Structure formats: C-alpha cells, structure tokens
Here is the input.
Amino acid sequence: MLTARIIPCLDVDAGHVVKGVKFQDLRRAGDPAERAAEYERQGADELVILDVSATHEGRGHQVDTTRKVRAVLSIPLTVGGGVRLPADAGRLLEAGADKVAINSAAVADPSVISGISKRYGAQCAVVAIDARRLRDGTWGVVVRGGRDVTDRRVVEWAREAVDRGAGELLLTSWDQDGTRAGYDLDLLRAVSAAVPVPVIASGGADGPHHMIDALRAGADAVLAASIFHDGDWTVARIKDALAEAGVEVRPV
Here is the structure.
C-alpha cells in the first residue's frame, strides 16, 4: 500500500511566505527557507512552493527562492507560479526543484504540459487546477490567482492535462481555500475517479479529520498551509492522528 503524503505549502509573494482566504487578503507568514527546514524536521514528505502573484503581475518564477529553499531541504520540492514555457520549468529544476507546477499558462496553451513532460519527464509535470463551484453544481477552472473564471470544466480539464503528459494534479478548491472548513470532497471524488495519476488535495484543511476524509475520497496526498503556519498542528502530530485512524504514513 502506498503511504499517504503530507505536504506543507508555502505560498510566496515577494520572497515572503503569505496566506490568505480564497487567494485574497494575504498576510505574511515567515521566511520560505526557515519554514521549509522546520517542516522537514517535523516529518513532511514533500514541500510545495507557489508564487501566488507571479502570473497576475506578469513576473517570472522565483529561482532565487527555490535555490535558498533547496539549500536547506532534502525532501522532494515542487515549485510553481509564473511558469509559462518548458524553459521556465528547466530553470526551476536546475535551481533545485524536483517537480514544476503549471496552472494559468497550461490553460492558455495546453501544449506547454506536453513540452515539459516530454523534455523532463511526466514525473516533473504537475498541473495545478484551481476549481470554483458553479451554480449548476459542476466546477469551473479559475486562473490568475482565482481572478478569472474560464469556460473550462475541472473534470474534463483534468483528463486533458493527464492526456497531455501531467504526472500529477494539484487540485485546489477556491471555495474552501483558507476557510478551514474542510476539503471539497465531491470535487476530489470526481477528479480522482477521472484520472489515473496521483491527486493532491488542497484548500480547506483544519486538521487530520479533514485529511482523512480527503484521502478516503480518493486523494493520494493532502496539502495544507494555515494549520502549519499558525502552529495549530505539526506534521508529526498530523501523522500520528492519521496512523491512529489506520492511514499508512511514512514514519517521522
């Protein structure tokens, strides 16, 4: 049985870790390298860094931040934000990322997924999907930090992303992000059932009970930010609670 992965997320803006609600009202939450080192000490299985304003502001990705984090980190690292071309992904991988997440640019030009996957391998190509529930009960894809709702539907886009070479999906519920009200389980079930690659659940965790629900809904990994940044939970305590519930986790 594969172990469930616990993944702290560092949303980064101008070199600082930030956190908000529904991608808005960002507040500072520390230094990326310091946070990364602490989460590895706590037993994190992987780490995700997302530059939350790069696409909106038309900036590139943060290579310097990636280098600084990699210098203190030995676990797998996924970096995203501002990635528009396979060459952008290459620079992040050279700086120390193990995987690269692409979101808005992939929606605008899905061939970018294929380009990254073919050049660096599907294991490096993570497609981040930000989902917003629509009035008809389905989910629409939002881009540019949740600012724009596209005409794409999440489940169909997830299938296309995998067909084009994505080796993993980072699935974030815009509605639940930062609310601590739990992951969108219906969304997780729908996407997990539609694709053969691992799905990372993101958006809404308040503790291990929400993570257990997400894993039982089909997620292969669970991502969280606020509960770790605010010190409410450590990764080790989360893993203890999951293990007690019968979830296979990597020992700390």
Remarks:
- The radius of gyration is 16 Å.
